[in-house]
Specification:
single chain; alpha/beta; Rossmann fold; nine-stranded mixed sheet; two-stranded antiparallel sheet; 6 helices; 27% strand; globular
Length: 244
Amino acid sequence: MKIMVAIKRVVDYAVKIRVKSDKTGVETQNVKMSMNPFCEIALEEALRIRESGLASEVVAVSMGPTQCVDTLRTGLAMGADRAIHVDTTAALYPLSVAKLLKALVDVEKPGLLILGKQAIDDDCNQTGQMVAGLLDWPQGTFASKVVLDKEKQVATVEREVDGGLETLCLDLPAVITTDLRLNQPRYATLPNIMKAKSKVIKKFTPQELNVEIKSDLEVVQVTEPPKRKAGVIVSFCGRADRQA
């Protein structure tokens, strides 16, 4: 079985976000970028499934400008077998990403598609659900535990819900989105980082995948949240006041 993992290049989680002066978006020039933490968890889970002998190949996929190749090389250094880059400078919203993923699934024919439950730059939490709908595949979102049964071709997903834990049994192929408690991603070793630099990354364009990039959404303005007001010191009440 082949596993496809979608990974996203985002502003590093440790960077203090700055809004552009014209309020059209977040400043990304000369800002450290890295793989979305939830995508790291998704890739780690795919690698563990492969290492357990339940999958034969892990394919990492990223979409966006040329710089996304650096993120893909991080995925290759972690252990992914191959990488695919959908090269586009257009603004990508969840539905567009879902359509591109569907097109890549049609090309690669994976038995499992794993994504992070959300990206830390927009927190949309929509792509996994959308691509499952487009593919007409069963989905297990917010997974905190994944168990595959190769003989029965099913995946058991334990997921966190408001009331506790819910267990789902999904027929493969399926879409799974990962939560924080699923695993602890590994660090890429220096030898693997060096090997990843020489690996070929396959490129596609949205036109080659017959996907039109468009959105009904328009970002009108991006502003910082209001600064927290200073606290108020409350005077201590004496015994007489408390008794009263």
